[in-house]
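Exercise 7b. Backbone tokens:
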């Protein structure tokens, strides 16, 4: 396993404002030729299965009743049906064993039908146009003191699967396909149902290609080594995934890295039966909150230390968080369509978006981390509570979900440097238990105009040095040390949902324009084009509401020319 350890080491980067454009490097899994090679030797031994017996042609394998034992390195071609029997690999510790599943049906009622007990590595080859099946029973018989194997296909050492054929696995006892070392999938059309986990590599799980269909009462894909910080990682470079899991969809004890692939992931009962609270007593998705708390993790993508996504297409319907990291989470590419009962993207430390096309249509909170940085991408978020939340300490999750835990100490902030962002939030649009920094990008927010919640809320400072912002909803006042002017405005009569809010300069150019996604009684505006001393016209649905002179770094007015009121309280400056 030493050859794999380097792949589990993730480059660390500072959480206190990482420089723009310095995306963490994704680890690369060190595939070997044998992991991906779907050919076999012309002089391979042949094992023909015939009901309760088998016949071997060639050397390296023996038959005893309904048990076939492979005892040394080499290529073995298996075909036929073995009912209530076992294929056991018990080779040398340095041996490479390659099993060609050439139309095989294996079943065993009291143990693992394909038990890879010892080898340096076993490779399962699925030839094109072949159909193979492996299934076990609901209970295993163990010798005293033993509790393995625990999967329909179980490897004590490294296991690789490759080829273009089909493999269906039914794990009736516990897991479907499991390796106590590293599980590598280089190809194949693999369907797994399991009463626990579908695909499990204890030390690591890596996928280069293939079609994976997982239906699990536990987790869909998993690496679960919690004893070694260099292990327990998952790397997905391609493939097509359909995952239905009662608990987590894809879970890595340490790091989870995704560079490509097409993912359709459903966890728990999905977003529609989540325990989100209804805003102001109404639920725009027509759900009723459930009474009992559920402490089980039902996240779609979950990492214990670091989650990196640089590519892929994602369709997620999760009862818990869609993407969750107990450390940092970085998005640098990909297309995301997310529905979740809790957070869309959550990091206990730094949540960073460098690129990607992200749509969250149902969630409790859209983006949440101790620090949240948006450097690029196209984001559209609809949230029951906050659209973006930078929180410290403990923070309550969706109703019935456990509290979120964040890194202790330090400074909590939301920093927007680039990208386009459109938020509809029934709590705060942006909420920081610390600072909000607007330095670039194009941000539009529809949020409340209430005393305790608004489009932009913060505990310390809101500092604007660049970027564009327009809100349908109130905002606390930017700090005077901001270098880019801003305008806060409260309406005498509400702007209805669907109203077009525009800000025009004295030459008639529209500088900012936004169609409100909720009713509002206040708006905030900033753009690099604003200049102190200039007069700007605010319009709603093309009708002038006020002419406003920008008289400082922050200009805060109501429609009658008085002081800006932030949802029933004076705007904080």
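Sequence design result:
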């Amino acid at each position: 396993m030493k050859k794999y350890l380097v792949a589990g080491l993730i480059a660390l980067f500072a959480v206190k404002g990482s420089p723009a454009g310095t995306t963490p490097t994704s680890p690369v899994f060190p595939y070997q030729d044998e992991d991906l090679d779907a050919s076999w030797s012309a002089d391979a031994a042949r094992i023909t299965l015939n009901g309760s017996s088998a016949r071997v042609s060639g050397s390296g394998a023996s038959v005893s009743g309904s048990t076939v034992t492979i005892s040394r390195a080499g290529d073995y071609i298996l075909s036929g049906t073995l009912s209530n029997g076992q294929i056991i690999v018990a080779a040398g510790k340095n041996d490479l064993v390659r099993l060609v599943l050439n139309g095989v049906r294996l079943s065993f009622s009291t143990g693992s039908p394909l038990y890879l007990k010892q080898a340096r590595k076993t490779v399962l080859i699925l030839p094109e146009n072949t159909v193979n099946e492996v299934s076990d029973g609901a209970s295993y018989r163990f010798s005293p003191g033993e509790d393995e194997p625990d999967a329909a296909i179980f490897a004590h050492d490294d296991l690789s699967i490759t080829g273009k054929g089909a493999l269906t696995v039914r794990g009736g006892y516990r897991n479907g396909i499991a390796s106590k070392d590293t599980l590598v999938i280089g190809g194949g059309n693999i369907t797994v149902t399991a009463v626990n986990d579908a695909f499990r590599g204890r030390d690591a799980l890596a996928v280069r290609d293939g079609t994976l269909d997982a239906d699990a009462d536990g987790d869909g894909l998993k690496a679960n080594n919690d004893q070694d910080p260099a292990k327990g990682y998952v790397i997905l470079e391609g493939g097509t995934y359909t995952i239905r899991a009662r608990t987590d969809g894809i879970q890595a004890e340490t790091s989870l890295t995704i560079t490509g692939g097409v993912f359709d992931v459903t966890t728990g009962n999905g977003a529609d039966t989540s325990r989100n609270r209804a805003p102001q007593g109404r639920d725009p998705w027509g759900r009723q909150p459930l009474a009992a708390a559920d402490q089980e993790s039902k996240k779609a993508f979950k990492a214990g230390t670091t989650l990196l996504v640089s590519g892929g297409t994602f369709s997620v319907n999760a009862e818990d968080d869609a993407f969750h990291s107990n450390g940092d989470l970085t998005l640098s590419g990909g297309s995301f369509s997310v529905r979740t009962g809790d957070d869309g993207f959550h990091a206990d430390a730094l949540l960073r978006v460098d690129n990607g096309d992200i749509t969250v249509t149902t969630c409790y909170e859209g983006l949440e981390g101790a620090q949240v940085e948006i450097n690029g991408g196209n984001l559209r978020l609809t949230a029951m509570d906050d659209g973006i939340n930078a929180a410290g300490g403990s923070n309550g999750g969706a109703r019935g979900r456990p509290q979120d835990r964040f890194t202790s100490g330090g400074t909590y902030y939301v920093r927007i440097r680039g990208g386009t962002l459109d938020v509809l939030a029934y709590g705060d649009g942006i909420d920081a238990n610390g600072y909000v920094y607007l330095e670039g990008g194009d941000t539009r927010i529809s949020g409340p105009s209430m005393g305790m919640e608004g489009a932009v809320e913060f505990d310390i400072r809101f500092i604007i040095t660049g970027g564009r912002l327009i809100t349908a909803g109130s905002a606390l006042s930017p700090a005077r040390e901001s270098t880019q002017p801003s305008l806060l405005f409260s309406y005498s009569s509400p702007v209805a949902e669907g109203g077009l809010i525009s800000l025009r300069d004295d030459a008639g150019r529209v500088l900012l324009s936004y169609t409100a996604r909720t009713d509002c009684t206040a708006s905030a505006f900033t753009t690099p084009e604003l200049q102190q001393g200039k007069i700007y016209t605010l319009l709603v649905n093309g009708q002038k509401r006020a002419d406003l002179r920008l008289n400082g770094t922050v200009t805060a007015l109501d429609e009658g020319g008085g002081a800006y009121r932030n949802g029933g309280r004076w705007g904080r400056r």
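Instructor comment: The two ends are 58 Å apart (CA to CA). Residues 94 and 519 are 69 Å apart (CA to CA).
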